[in-house]
From TrEMBL:
PROSITE patterns: CYS_MET_METAB_PP. It catalyses: L-methionine + H2O = methanethiol + 2-oxobutanoate + NH4(+); L-homocysteine + H2O = 2-oxobutanoate + hydrogen sulfide + NH4(+) + H(+). It holds the Pfam family Cys_Met_Meta_PP. Homotetramer; dimer of active dimers. This is L-methionine gamma-lyase. It comes from Croceicoccus naphthovorans. GO terms for molecular function: cystathionine gamma-lyase activity; cystathionine gamma-synthase activity; homocysteine desulfhydrase activity; methionine gamma-lyase activity; pyridoxal phosphate binding. GO terms for cellular component: cytoplasm. Its cofactor is pyridoxal 5'-phosphate. Its EC number is 4.4.1.11. InterPro entries: Cys/Met-Metab_PyrdxlP-dep_enz (IPR000277), Cys_met_metab_PP (IPR054542), O_succ_thio_ly (IPR011821), PyrdxlP-dep_Trfase (IPR015424), PyrdxlP-dep_Trfase_major (IPR015421), PyrdxlP-dep_Trfase_small (IPR015422).
């Protein structure tokens, strides 16, 4: 079908329909899944568009194109995990290159950067990127790459991408933003000056907790070409079936995000007035220090939040034993609601000291809000909170 005269589609339309009804062989509406690892040459010295699956696969490329469009980039590389996507950027650097990363970045990212630096593959410096002086001092060391993550995990701290990216570029650094927590339905870092956007597609993009995957989207075609080559050299490509599932999940991204963040807002507002809760971290709340930046930089406040219990670790244990409709598990971004205790789960590897510096205490719980009915989520949380203080206090 000719695209001539077709209006430029809204991102929600891209997510729902990119690559639909383009099958030449049978007119299949859902894009076919190509599992083949290798492709027949047309003849002597005549490779076709695809020759070998490590370098390229039609199903994987369709997902890459859809993500590049949604993030406003030139092209994307699909990897076997979010960590593989980050490592694709990191492993391209040399021993003299410095990475400036947030002090409260994703635990796995911190572990990766430290492991690479320990082996002399690059060097890394962690700074509080919301502290202008600390960030400026970091830039004085002339980093090759500045990595930004906002909102942060698990405290949902928000940093202002545009000025950080502008300063980083002025200092000669490339800028990568991990956009996993919001997805392009809510935040588009390339439009704010980023050179690269990194995703764990495991989370919101796939959205159904049944794939581990990652992606990097590059703003300019040269950067994209370079990454594709590097991905082929090191062999970090994701599996075609995973790409197919992720594209299937992506179809409903905008609809899921709308409902999940509306549920999150309701849950955060309800938690904030509960006597068993001492603090709620959600950028949608007026009391959140990042609220103004988030309102400006994001198209919504996302569906992740964390909160602290007044009763300490004992309350955490009772809450986890009694909460309903939330599953105790790591990860996030799926259609089902999850609860995690960062100190003993996602952030256990960080060590007590680094956790204290990042402000992650033992009373903190993180919620990934799903698609369940709002009243059930609140009732389920009430079951947990009511049990926090069995000695008398009846919560909320
Ligand atoms: C989960 C996550 C990653 C790592 O992705 P995997 O798919 O688990 O390898 C990186 N960054 C953030 C912010 C994440 O939440």
């Amino acid at each position: 079908m000719s695209d001539r005269g077709k209006p430029s589609p809204d991102p929600a339309t891209v997510a729902a329909a990119f690559g639909v009804a383009e099958d030449m062989a049978y007119g299949a509406v859902a894009p076919p899944l190509y599992m083949s690892s290798t492709y027949e040459f047309a003849g002597y010295d005549q490779p076709r568009l695809y020759d070998y699956g490590r370098g390229g696969n039609p199903t994987r490329d369709l997902l890459a194109e859809a993500l590049a469009k949604l993030e406003g980039g030139a092209s994307a590389v699909i990897t076997s995990s979010g960590m593989a996507a980050l490592d694709l950027l990191v492993s391209r650097l040399g021993p003299d290159d410095l990475i400036l990363a947030p002090h409260d970045c994703y635990g796995g990212t911190m572990r990766l950067l430290k492991a690479r630096a320990d082996r002399g593959h690059c060097s890394v410096r962690f700074v509080d990127q919301s502290d202008d002086a600390a960030f400026a001092a970091g830039l004085e060391e002339v980093p090759a790459l500045v990595l930004i993550e906002t909102p942060s995990n698990p405290l949902m701290r928000v940093v202002d991408i545009a000025p950080l990216a502008a300063k980083a570029k002025q200092a000669g650094a490339a800028v990568a933003v991990d956009n996993t927590f919001l997805s392009p339905a809510i935040q588009r870092p390339i439009s704010l000056g980023a050179d690269y956007v990194v995703h764990s597609t495991t989370k919101y993009l796939n959205g159904h907790s049944d794939v581990i995957g990652g992606a990097i989207i590059a703003a300019d075609p040269d950067g994209a070409q370079d990454l594709r080559q590097w991905a082929n050299i090191v062999g970090s490509a994701g599996a075609p079936f995973d790409a197919w599932l992720t594209l299937r999940g992506l179809r409903t991204l905008f609809a899921r995000m709308q409902v999940q963040q509306s549920n999150a807002m309701a849950v955060a507002t309800w938690l904030e007035q509960h006597p068993a809760v001492s603090k709620v971290h959600y950028p949608g709340l007026l009391t959140h220090p990042g609220h103004a930046i988030a309102s400006r930089q994001q198209d919504g406040f996302g569906a992740m939040l964390s909160f602290e219990l007044t009763g300490g670790v004992d309350a955490v244990r009772r809450f986890i034993d009694h909460v309903k409709f939330f599953t105790l598990a790591e990860s996030l971004g799926g259609v089902e609601s999850l609860v995690a205790h960062p100190a003993t789960m996602t952030h256990a590897d960080m060590g007590d000291e680094a956790r204290a510096v990042a402000g992650i205490n033992d009373s903190l719980l993180r919620l990934s809000i799903g698609l369940e009915a709002e009243q059930d989520l609140i009732a389920g949380l009430e079951c947990g909170l009511a049990a926090c203080d069995l000695g008398g206090m009846q919560g909320g």
